[in-house]
Amino acid sequence: MSTFCRMHGxxxxxxxxxxxxxxxxxxxYEERLKKGATKGPLTxxxxxxxxxxxxxxxxxxxDQQGGERSIRKTVEMFNTxxxxxxxxxxxxxxxVCLKLVRTQQGRYRADSYEDGAAYFALAGESAAEVRI
Length: 132
What we know:
By secondary structure, this protein is mainly α. The chain has five helices and three strands. A three-stranded antiparallel β-sheet has the order 2-1-3. The longest helix has 22 residues. The protein is globular and about 45 Å long.
């Protein structure tokens, strides 16, 4: 059975279901095609779409309406521990920095770019809540 990377469709022949390609888990190719997916190149648009999917999945996983919103509590905890005054927006920007660093270490991993795009969008949302 052929498998392919479920994030961007890179085909890999004769690999077990849970094996990694360079960046992602693999799932059966036939299963993906049944869902109407087509393989294609990794593009800026596909990175943004996957970032949005990650946010939706995290909303379901962490039971947060509207998606990933854990940074507020994280920043509050950090500020309590360190007596700093980090804002929610700055918390998201910190996460963007983490993902930027990870893009320069080791093999290419699309999720660093996907998460970075999502975190930057969340920083923008947080900034708009305070500054508009």
